[in-house]
Amino acid sequence: MPAKIIDGKQIAANIRAELKAEIEKLKAKGIIPGLGVILVGADPASVSYVTAKEKACGEIGIYSDDNRLPAETSEKDLLALVNKMNKDPKINGILVQLPLPKHIDEQKVLLAIDPAKDVDGFHPISVGKMVVGQKAFLPCTPNGVVQLLLRSGVKLDGAEVVIVGRSNIVGKPLANMLIQKSPAGNATVTVCHTRTKDVAAHTRRADIVIAAAGKVNAITADMIKDGAVVIDVGINRVEDSTKKAGFRLVGDVDFENVSKKASLITPVPGGVGPMTITMLLYNTVESAKANI
Ligand code: GUN
Predict the structure, then answer these.
(1) How far is 24 from 30, CA to CA, in rounded Å?
(2) Does one domain contain both 55 and 170?
(3) DSSP string, 80-99
(4) Is the CB of 233 under 6 A from ligand 1?
(5) Is the pLDDT of residue 291 over 80?
(6) How far does residue 201's CA lie from ligand 1's centre (Å)?
(7) Does residue 1 have a pLDDT over 90?
(8) Does the beta carbon of 262 lie inside 6 Å of ligand 1?
(9) Residue 122 lies inside a defined structural domain of this protein
(10) What is the band of 252 on the pLDDT scale with cuts at 50, 70, 90?
């Protein structure tokens, strides 16, 4: 039987509607959640992410302070802007879009963000709190994956999860979230990466496979067991002359064939993507409520 599709767009829309209602209540108390967004340079993928983030803020009533800086911006000027946002009471969350140009030390910039406004969850203080199970801003893409699983009724307790990819943005935090002793965790997690000897040997025994490798067709049908749940975090551009833009977006999973074997699967686009921005909106609202 073909897999059921997990509709990330619909789940994201439901959460955004919940957040919109919450923001209306905050506004009645004079609180307007605010997000400071900084983009340095004009990397096309980053420009489209940031544009979508700004639009999503507007749609649910979050104030957005958008800063698009030239690629030549110095590290000093960027740090000065982060510090200004740290002090700005209208801003509850700060997002510096990654990657940054090579002449800027990414870790230095992430460290400069006030942890109380770290809605991306990338500051070492946020990461540390997450690892030890304290309340923290959870990074948006991994949290989006967990919410998709929970809202699709997937059992995490005791599940064998295999994550393919060990990035700081997805693989590492997601593994930590899923092993927490909590209803959103309690899974047994294996993380595969570029030096794993036999990725398929791991993915074949998984109840849930999460692909975050950044590679087209990293997960093929022979690599998953019948009835597995498959979450595709990848967003890859492949040339396609039939499209106006000259390319189309595909994930890391061979969707056509894997969807014949899986029980549940996310599409690309329309799976994890809409959830990332939604969890950013969620973190910004939590920050405005001073809940973290
Ligand atoms: N670049 C790719 N994904 C992300 C993200 O979630 N946050 C930031 N700041 N940059 C990114």
Answers:
(1) 10
(2) no
(3) HHHHHHHH-TT-SEEEE-SS
(4) no
(5) no
(6) 31
(7) no
(8) no
(9) no
(10) very high
Q: Are residues 67 and 169 in the same domain?
A: no
Question: What is the rounded CA–CA span in Å between residue 273 and residue 266?
Answer: 10
Q: Is 52 in the pocket of ligand 1 (CB under 6 A)?
A: no
Q: Which residue, of 115, 130, 152, is where some domain finishes?
A: 115
User: Ligand 1 pocket, 169 CB below 6 A?
Assistant: yes
Question: Domain with 192 in it: what CATH number?
Answer: 3.40.50.720
Return the amino acid letter for 102: K
- CA separation (Å) from 267 to 193, 233, 259? 22, 9, 9
Catalytic residue, from 120, 207, 252, 254: name it: 120
Distance 260 CA to ligand 1 centre (A): 32
Q: Are residues 92 and 38 in the same domain?
A: yes
pTM over 0.90: yes
Does 214 lie in the same domain as 160? yes
- Give the mutation target among 67, 113, 120 for probing the ligand 1 site: most ligand atoms within 8 A of CB: 120
Indicate if 167 and 64 belong to the same structural domain: no
Look-up: residue for tokens 């549940």?
264
Q: What pLDDT does residue 292 have? A: 57
- Domain of residue 145, residue span: 140-275
Overall domain count for the chain:
2
Is there an atom of ligand 1 within 6 Å of 98 CB? yes
